[in-house]
Automatic annotation (TrEMBL):
Purine salvage pathway enzyme that catalyzes the transfer of the ribosyl-5-phosphate group from 5-phospho-alpha-D-ribose 1-diphosphate (PRPP) to the N9 position of the 6-oxopurines hypoxanthine and guanine to form the corresponding ribonucleotides IMP (inosine 5'-monophosphate) and GMP (guanosine 5'-monophosphate), with the release of PPi. CDD domains: PRTases_typeI. It comes from Cerasibacillus quisquiliarum. It is found in: Cytoplasm. Belongs to the purine/pyrimidine phosphoribosyltransferase family. This is Hypoxanthine phosphoribosyltransferase. The lineage of its organism: Bacteria, Bacillati, Bacillota, Bacilli, Bacillales. It comes from the Bacteria. The keyword Cell membrane does not apply. The keyword Translocase does not apply. Residues 13-160 form the Phosphoribosyltransferase domain. One of its GO terms (molecular function) is magnesium ion binding.
Amino acid sequence: MDQEIKEILITEEEIQQKCKEIGAQLTEEYDGKFPLAIGVLKGALPFMADLLKNIKTHLEMDFMDVSSYGGKNIRSTGEVKIIKDLDTKVEGRHLLIIEDIIDSGQTLSYLVDLFKYRKAKSIKIVTLIDKPEGRIADIKADIVGFQVPNEFLVGYGLDYDEKYRNLPYIGVLKPEIYNR
Ligand code: PRP
Ligand code: MN
Ligand code: MG
């Protein structure tokens, strides 16, 4: 698997260090507030697991699975479909949405609108990766781990054809892998 990676952009150590930093910040921000941490499946899973271990106050976890309507290649509509909804009521709760990456911003824009409509008390977005050049929707994360250029990245939750999510680092895929 590793030999299919052209270059490691963010190492395992850098990711773990970042999880500690953001975790410490969120521990302070959410102390005594019992936030609802929402992971956006599937990409957010590795980051969510490592980040939450570094938030040292009580919180609740839940998951949402959404997909861009009509598949990832057609991004223009911005339509998002719910595959799995939350089990938890959002009204009156402090929400922490956890993502692996913001690209066009359409996934998060949809979720933020949905949670506002459901009367969340507060909404914060934390993303490990931000690709500002890809932005279509007007949305910004409150906390960004790393800003990256517009390259095709895999690993640590990010997939190509459902593969590479289990790499402990984030890397650039060799072009021959996706050109074949
Ligand atoms: C990816 C990624 C984000 C979203 C970002 O998820 O994990 O959730 O796309 O793209 P956007 O900012 O353009 O909306 P995807 O829908 O591929 O599902 P996955 O997490 O299961 O891979
Ligand atoms: Mn995702
Ligand atoms: Mg994906």
